[in-house]
Specification:
Elements: H1 25-29, E1 34-40, H2 44-48, H3 50-61, E2 66-72, H4 84-94, E3 97-100
Parallel strand pairs: 1-2, 2-3
Length: 111
């Protein structure tokens, strides 16, 4: 990964969308400049929850944070419940970046 800044601290918090972690959002993102909200393209509920998670991030960080919405598990296309267009539309409505990826195959992981 090539970066213009000499040093970057990266912390990843995988909450698996669980409600019990929502109260910890302030401590997760206190000094963050980027938030990545991931949903499972085969799970409508995970997609529906993205609005709440993004709202929570904005409540804590305001407009000082870059937010990316990520649709994951593109390797399970035959089980897809959320279309690419729906993901793009949600990202547009929330003014966030959007990409789909597959952690399993590596599709769009380096982007």
């Amino acid at each position: 990964l090539s970066l213009s800044e000499p040093q970057v601290r990266l912390q990843l918090w995988d909450t698996a969308g669980q409600e019990r972690f929502r109260s910890l959002i302030p401590s997760y993102i206190r000094d963050s400049t980027v938030a990545v909200v991931v949903y499972d393209i085969t799970n409508v509920n995970s997609f529906q929850q993205t609005c709440k998670w993004i709202e929570d991030v904005r409540t804590e960080r305001g407009s000082d944070v870059i937010i990316m919405l990520v649709g994951n598990k593109t390797d399970l296309a035959d089980k897809r419940q959320i279309t690419i267009e729906e993901g793009e539309q949600r990202a547009k409505e929330l003014s966030v970046m959007f990409i789909e990826t597959s952690a399993k195959t590596g599709y769009n992981v380096k982007q």
